[in-house]
Amino acid sequence: MIIDSEEYLYEIDQQPYHCAMDVTMHFIGGKWKTVVLWYMKGGTKRFSELKSHMPQITEKMLSIQLKQLENDGLIHRSVLTSKPPMKVEYSLTDFGRTLLPVLNAVAEWGRKTGTEKGKLVKVEQNVID
Fold it and tell me: How many CB atoms lie within 10 A of CB 49?
């Protein structure tokens, strides 16, 4: 990025980022990270709860995304071993919560765009007799 005719970049953990958007996309880029964070905004979630909100994501991909978000310090993974079976819960860290205004703005843009360029369609639930 150019500031006062000089070229600068951000360096985080010895990794160069050429602008603020590059930094942001490192943390929340890709198809699933923002969706995972969005569903975690309401509080602590178990893996199965997150998976149920995102039926199109594979378990492997959800696991990868959670690991990346944890490594980046956006979520916290808690292992509860009080009694078998072991339970794992995920929650936003303080750092992760700093993204909530950004996620809310992106969601608002999505609602507006979805309404202007498309339509809201009710999903019919499959009922098995």
Answer: 15
Give the domain range for residue 7: 1-30
Identify whether 114 is part of a domain.
no
> How distant is the alpha carbon of residue 52 from its chain centre?
15
Q: Is residue 117 part of a domain?
A: no
Interval 55-68: pLDDT, tens: 999 999 999 999 99
- At 20, list the tokens: 């603020």
Side-chain-side CA neighbours of residue 34 (13 Å)? 17
| Torsion 81-37-67-48 (CA) sign | positive
- How far is residue 78's CA from residue 88's CA, in Å, rounded to a whole number? 6
Distance, CA of 16 to CA of 63 (rounded, Å) = 26
pTM of the prediction? Answer: 0.84
Tell me if 111 is assigned to some domain: no
Q: DSSP letter for 81, please.
A: -
